[in-house]
Amino acid sequence: MSPRLQRAPGVTIGDIAAAAQVSRSTVSRAFTRPQLLSPETVDHVRAVASRLGYVGNQAARALSTGRFGNIAVVVPDIANPFFPPLVRSLQSAAETADLAVFLGDSDESAEREAKLIARLAPQVEGFVLASPRLSEELIRELAATRPVVLVNRDLEGIPRVLIDSSGGMTEAVMLLKKLGHQRIAYLAGPRDSWSDQQRREVLTSTASGLTVEVIEVGRPSYAAGRDSVSAIVRSGATAAIAFDDVVSQGVLAGLELRGISVPSDFSLVGCDDTLAALTTPALTSVSAGAATAGTAAAKLLIQLLDDPTAECVTIATHLVIRATTAAVTSRVTR
Amino acid sequence: MSPRLQRAPGVTIGDIAAAAQVSRSTVSRAFTRPQLLSPETVDHVRAVASRLGYVGNQAARALSTGRFGNIAVVVPDIANPFFPPLVRSLQSAAETADLAVFLGDSDESAEREAKLIARLAPQVEGFVLASPRLSEELIRELAATRPVVLVNRDLEGIPRVLIDSSGGMTEAVMLLKKLGHQRIAYLAGPRDSWSDQQRREVLTSTASGLTVEVIEVGRPSYAAGRDSVSAIVRSGATAAIAFDDVVSQGVLAGLELRGISVPSDFSLVGCDDTLAALTTPALTSVSAGAATAGTAAAKLLIQLLDDPTAECVTIATHLVIRATTAAVTSRVTR
DNA sequence: AGTGATTCTGCAACCGGTTGCACTATCGTT
DNA sequence: AACGATAGTGCAACCGGTTGCAGAATCACT
Q1: Surface of A (126-185) touching B: CB under 8 A
Q2: Given an 8 Å threshold on Cβ–Cβ distance, is B63 in contact with A60?
Q3: Cβ atoms within 10 Å of B106's Cβ, excluding its own
């Protein structure tokens, strides 16, 4: 069984060289260093190449240059609605730089994340780790080896894209104040989430004049949100800000079950703006710009490939006001 | 600037060969074909290799074997909720076979899809094309070159995973009949979608005893669903089946706007079961098992890598009854 | 001891690109 | 006319593995 049989019958520079009556070197240079050749030669070779449908073999290129033209993005759960827009815009940005994208889904496990990274490392030029579960130590170890961009993880010295909730959160608090709410609940996300930590801080620092009840919901999910409603009611809050939109949607469902109508009896603000327009009523939410983050991460990584200077990009957020926030009224149901 | 400087200072088989006092071939065989060597040699070489921290260079291996250990999955839009579970389970299955996964997002464009495929082709062993927009001709051309598995596209002779809606659709029709509905609407998806074609057929063939109004909504989206409500009302239907859950959610919103309450005044069934549990009220939907499809596609492709025998897997669907379907009543609102 | 079969290992070519170096025109100068 | 500079191209080695083929070593058996 010859290997040639298994191999795709791709067009190689040799074929083009023969067809164009030049050497293989010239074909190679026509693509990688056109300045070295006469413009006519470049045009000619490229014309022949495209006529033959030539596509460079990355593996071969990688072998001699050490550059692979691939990057990897690792997420804890692609099914979480925050990540698809991020991955999508990242892949789009990578495409314009002619980089192909590996996707790794760690299933929220640090161990699987480490395995994925090890598996991909030998064939990528860099990593984008979105909300990594990995220990700081391992991340730093990896970052020492090759370009790494973090999303929503704040490690000094490592390039990262941080979605700064403070703008949107502050707006949310202001809005709720203006609407007359005096006691609000924060449905907190995972303790080890940088986003959650930041949101807590913003809340406690901007909430002068109103009381904030922090309610832990554990792993953020629809069910967790729904089940947190009894605690919300117990807290006496007239409004809540939830860690993310999925939790918010659960809360909406839980409130409905109890006959508490939104926004007349209760106001709710989500975060991330992933589902916002799709809930009933449409959810007021802090936009997170996952797509923007994806683009930013890709650009940062691409830049990093040439110039290894650490940088940090923060993305501002704002409040998108929809139909789940209204002036406080005397509660009809309790 | 020498390429060596850019390259990671990896240990190569040459280093091991020198350290172990054997030839490079022997080192290679110690890993790829240990049966050919004496057990002692294998042990010795491997010991030296691990002492030196050897990690095989995929690019080099790929170059000579034509096997990359990579596959690619191409989707029209990763942000469409149908795909993340599919990609997720596919990547998980691939991981167990030690395959890394490239993700391509074609942004619903046949042209970008073709480009992505061409870009990835030289470094993958096979493709999973989910709901490809590509022409049959190009798909067949690609499939002639390398293993290709299609998801929700039915091309004779090419391995494919088809989510067979007929089971779930039939159940849905039966349910609506039983609940007393006599006139139902089908909110149809894109004409070129295999799933849509299949669903239309099932509907018209099983719908004896009731009238089906087909309403075209164009590109399936929340807005399209919401805006189709006037047509639904005009049709006089008391229940509707929508092309997918996103459309359904739009319909729910549109119905709410008109004060038509679900399910007391109107029954609604979605398809794909992607959002089902998250709507208010919770949507009755035809489960599509996107995750199952992902796993099936991965397994099919893995199998295909060894044994190029075309096969077709169909995935059965069933109806998940939730809170948007109820017995028909006299309509309060019109 | 001689012979053939079998097992183990090495040589060298190859995968498809890239690149240092050398060579050949071509051109401008004096 | 002679000569150095320069631009354009080709040769050949190399990246790090894999593998067909052949030779060496070992073994079984007459």
Answers
A1: 145-146
A2: yes
A3: 24
pTM: 0.85
Residue B50, burial from CB neighbour count under 10 angstroms (0-12, 13-18, 19+): exposed
| CB neighbourhood size of B101 (10 A) | 26
Query: Which of B:58-87 have CB within 8 Å of A?
Result: 58-60, 62-68, 70, 77-79, 81, 83-85, 87
Q: Which amino acid is at B154?
A: D
Question: How does pLDDT run along chain B (334 residues), one tens digit per residue?
Answer: 222 223 345 789 999 999 999 999 999 999 999 999 999 999 999 999 999 988 888 888 988 888 888 999 999 999 889 999 999 999 999 999 889 999 999 998 899 999 999 888 888 989 999 999 899 999 998 998 889 999 999 999 999 999 999 999 999 999 999 999 999 999 998 887 888 989 999 998 987 889 999 999 987 888 999 999 999 999 999 999 999 998 999 999 999 999 999 999 999 999 999 987 778 788 999 998 899 999 999 999 999 887 778 789 999 999 999 999 999 975 444 4
Three-state secondary-structure class, residue A140: helix
Structure tokens at B312: 């077709």
Tokens of A148: 């790494």
Structure tokens at A242: 């939830």
